[in-house]
Design goal:
By secondary structure, this protein is an all-alpha fold. It has one domain: Up-down Bundle (de novo design (two linked rop proteins)), CATH 1.20.1440.20. Helix content is about 80%, strand content about 0%. The chain is built from 7 helices and no strands. Helix 1 packs antiparallel against helix 2. Belongs to the LemA family. It holds the Pfam family LemA. It is a single-pass membrane protein.
Length: about 180
Amino acid sequence: MILIILIGIVVIIGLLWAGSYNSLVKHRNWVEESWAQIDVQLKRRYDLIPNLVETVKGYAKHEKETLALVIEKRNTIAEPNASRNERVQEDAQLNGLLRQLFALSESYPDLKANQQFLHLQEELSGTENKIAYARQAYNSMVMHYNTKIESFPQNIIASAHSFTRNDMLDIPDEEKEPVRITF
C-alpha cells in the first residue's frame, strides 16, 4: 500500500514537472517568435530604404551625408553577428535619420509631390508602426516569460533546465530626445 502511494506521489510530481517544463518551453518559444516578428519588419524596412534613398537622391543631391548615413545604418542592422540590443540601438539611430529624410520633403516641393516618394513614405510609416507593435509584443512576451521562470515552483524547474531571463527592449536615449533637423 505504501509503495502504491509513493508511486502515485512520484507520478504526480513527474506530471507537474513535465507540465511546468512544457509551459516554460512554450513561453520561451513565444519570446523567440515575437523577436522573429521584429526581424520581419526590420527586413521589410531594409528592403524599402534603397528605393526611398534613390528617389530622394534625384531631388536632394547635396544631402549625400544623410543618405550615406541611412544606407550605413541599414546595413549595420542587417549584420548577422549583432546582438538584439545592438540592432535595436542601430534601428533607433536609423529612425532618426529617416525622420530627417522625410523632413527634406519640406525643402523640395517637387519631392513632396512625387508619387513614388509619397508611396514609399507611407510604406515606411506603416512599417515603423508595425515595428513599434512588434516591439511591444516582444516586451510583453519577455515579461510573461521572465515572470514564469522567476515564480515558484517554475523557478526550480527553470534553473534545473537552464532557462535564463531575457532582456526587454529599451528605448535608446536618442529616441527620447526630440528630433533635430538641420539643413
